[in-house]
Amino acid sequence: MKQYSLWIVTAALLAACGNTPKKERQAAAPVFKPVEIPVMLNTPAERQRFVARHFWDNFDFADTAYLSEPALTEQAIADYVHVLRSMPEELGVASVARTMQLASTDRRMYDRFTDLFEKYLYDPNSPVRSETLYIPVLESMAVSDHLDSLTRLRPVHRLEMARKNRPGSKAADFSYTTGDGRTGTLYTLPARRTILFFNNPGCHACKEYTGQLDGSPVVGAALANKTLQVLALYPDENIREWTDYQPHMPKAWINGYDRTLTIRDNELYDLRAIPTLYLIDADRTVLLKDVTFPEIEEYLTEHQAGQ
Question: Considering the chain, what is the average pLDDT of its residues?
Answer without folding.
Answer: 90
